[in-house]
Amino acid sequence: MLKRAMIAGLNAGGVNVLDLETASVPLTRFHCRATLVSGAITLRLSADDPDSVIIRFFDRGGSDILEEQQRKIERLFTREDFRRVRPADIGDIDLVPRSLEQYALALEHTIDVKRVAARRFKVVIDYSYGSTSFVMPNVLAKLGAEVLVVNPFASTKGTLGFDRDEHAAQVAALVKASGADLGALIDPSGEQLLLVDDHGTVLTFDQLLFVFLDLVCDNLLGDTVALPVTVSRAAAEIVESRGYKVLWTKTSAAALMEEADSPAVGFAANLEGGIILPGFLPAFDAAAGLLKMLDLLAGRDVKLSELVAHAPSVHLLHEQVITPWEQKGTVMRTLVEQTHGREVDLIDGIKVHHDSGWVLVLPDPEEPITHIWAEGDSAGDARTLSQEYARRIRQMLK
């Protein structure tokens, strides 16, 4: 009903609409590029507040629009400054023919199908009631994979009750019981990926990133990996040890995707299970990430648990300090003054380097909150750095 209302409003403004019906976010992004449209919109209910609707706007390349564009749309909406057309100019509605087949075929072209099929993987996949389940079965069948599927149908009620930890524990139990090579949890939007190794261990997002970096750096398409400034320095060490460069980006998904669209970037990811394979789509795509993981494991002929065992340990903390809107600017300016003489990065917020680690202080763009990320050589160092900067901020607010 909400989507139909949105389509009717766009048509009334003279905009032609291609209806993908029920589609995952990555599939929607894919067709932005494949059909040469001006942009795209997705709607879904918020899992945190079922009475709220999340509306996301993508540009013609399938990437999230930037924050300044979001604010411009909000201002136009508030002023009711809509485009109005004559009846003869009202937009049309069309369907995209074979949209799932086009996307599935493009996914297949990102991997070595024969190599993966020869490995004969056994995989457990939880689709989390999302529409990624419409695409993956046909692709996995061509790979000769034995698949145990959980929640393989789209359900709004199911997605609203989605609990990542609960679903991950279920996948882990099934991996151990079935002797699968790995398990995968794909979130309802189809963007975030979580993996379980062959021992039934749920990978942290840090471990997921390290394993991907270890594998993709065998044959990176490009000479650069794009990562948000919140990522551990251990990730940079993996990339640089293989002769590649790290491009640090802002923390927002839109900023990371914008950099991923550069020809030099061969891989990008964040610390929330978002995997970007720019050669396929410069945006988060859990299905593409899972298929690429199978391809890379087959190429090196290694088990996921073996890579996890060699992943570096990190000590990275995140905390929040309530900060009134009117004082955010003062807090950031004062911190810049206090860090005089230290190495500082201003890519996003203030990242201060210390002998025992680093601290990133970043105001939240939507809430009266200041985020603090701290990484140390030990858990104690990370805690000390985090607490010190939290103390400084609270002192400024008195």
TrEMBL record:
InterPro entries: A-D-PHexomutase_a/b/a-I (IPR005844), A-D-PHexomutase_a/b/a-I/II/III (IPR016055), A-D-PHexomutase_a/b/a-II (IPR005845), A-D-PHexomutase_a/b/a-III (IPR005846), A-D-PHexomutase_C_sf (IPR036900). Keywords: Isomerase, Magnesium, Metal-binding, Phosphoprotein. The keyword Magnesium applies. One of its GO terms (molecular function) is metal ion binding. One of its GO terms (biological process) is carbohydrate metabolic process. Residues 1-83, 102-200, 206-310 form the Alpha-D-phosphohexomutase alpha/beta/alpha domain. Its cofactor is Mg(2+). SUPFAM superfamilies: Phosphoglucomutase, C-terminal domain, Phosphoglucomutase, first 3 domains. Belongs to the phosphohexose mutase family. This is Unannotated protein. The lineage of its organism: unclassified sequences, metagenomes, ecological metagenomes.
